[in-house]
Amino acid sequence: MRLSQVLNNITNLKFTDCEITEITLDSRKANQGALFCAINGHNIDARKFIPSTLENDVTAILADSDTTEDYLEVTENTQVIYTHNLNSKLSKIADNFYQHPSAKTNIVGITGTNGKTTIAQLVSQWIDLLGFKSATMGTIGNGFYGELTEAKNTTGSAFDIQENIAKYAEDNAKCVTMEVSSHGLVQDRIQAIDFNVVAFTNLSQDHLDYHNTMEEYFEAKISLFKDFQTKHQIINIDDEYGQKLVNLINNKNSIIAVSAKNQPLADEFKQFFYVKNVQYTNKGTTISLASHLGDFVVTTQLIGPFNVINTLQALAIMIALEFNTEDILHSASQLTPVIGRMEIFKKGKKPTIIIDYAHTPDGLEKALQAARIHTVGNLWCIFGCGGDRDVTKRPVMAQIAEENADKIIITNDNPRTENENIIIEDVKAGIKNKDGVQIIPDRFSAINYALENANSDDLILVAGKGHEDYQIIGTEKIHYSDRESAEKLLGIK
Hints:
The chain folds into three domains: 92 residues, Udp-n-acetylmuramoylalanyl-d-glutamate--2,6- Diaminopimelate Ligase, Chain: A, domain 1, CATH 3.40.1390; 237 residues, Mur-like, catalytic domain (UDP-N-acetylmuramoyl-L-alanine:D-glutamate ligase, 3-Layer(aba) Sandwich); 148 residues, Mur ligase, C-terminal domain (Protein-Tyrosine Phosphatase, Chain A, Alpha-Beta Complex), CATH 3.90.190.20.
């Protein structure tokens, strides 16, 4: 592709046109044929790597300008094009280079604090059950359903996102579901994506180390609805921030309102899904619901009240994507729990273990409330809090654990570069009855202790890690998995 095509609508500078075979943010990959984009980033100013890319005969360089003016420098045989606020233009650059990939398949963007992964995976799984190919990008990995590769971030870089969509579209993906993080929105990583459907799950305390206030966090999330033109906007109106979002959307006909409460919505919304009744069993959940299309019954293998609203939002997305309603409902019973999301591990008469990713106050509360419905004996809660992250949620999570669980074990999460003892003391500060809490920093040992001291009808919720197969201690990433620990201790594998 010609450089002029890659930089279409990026700069008005007159530069020498040339052939570009690759775009990259990595100076180590910047050689002949490549356009190297040197960003003045949050942690690293990549412009300092420009000399090394020149030594590798990089074809062209696009770099952050320290002024509001674009300008051109020619160094040896390479032109360096300086442009203002380069980071905000990366998505468009990649969109140009990969020839507008998001226009070639259905793109679903899902944002909110909790539920993004479950909804994205449910939609991808549902589409797969209907005989079509579906890809996903998010917390537990990127790729086609059942073939995920590890993702470094919930929302990848602007270049990675466009490259992935192009690859999935070329491989005949009917749809790509994308978890959209607040960081990804604020940092303009998805700016040039053409979304068919967007969904808002909920908003609760998280990432305040980055956004400072809940209002800033909310503003970041709702940009997915304010700054993108989408045909369908699915909103959980049970959430107070979901209600706020509804009031901010001008085109009310684009809204598909979902509610887990028995509250008729026909007078307020043209499109809606709301729950009339729910039955919980030890095998899953049966949901009776009303909608603008009529009344339905949906049966799944998912457990817990919060998975009711997740199922409804996934169903609304499937309807918005115009899949056959009868086929959707018929296949719902085949949906299985998402890896590390209220995932049940059970063998014989041993206590039941549930592994969940809950790592926020709201997430932990919902997970415990869901687990309580399925608990006959005592409900155990094993959890910790991450280091180098929002410290204010630590005592709050402890308070929630004490209010909702019968037995509590405080353990490590990802301590990172913080002292694990300081983190644990921060958590303990939220506990009233400190004598009733066990402190076992090693997660494997914590699960083992619970299994050895629990009765057969007890349920043990292990929260915080979910699908993750690592712990970050100091700056080292070591292999560890709650799922593997549960299987080993229960004798499943």
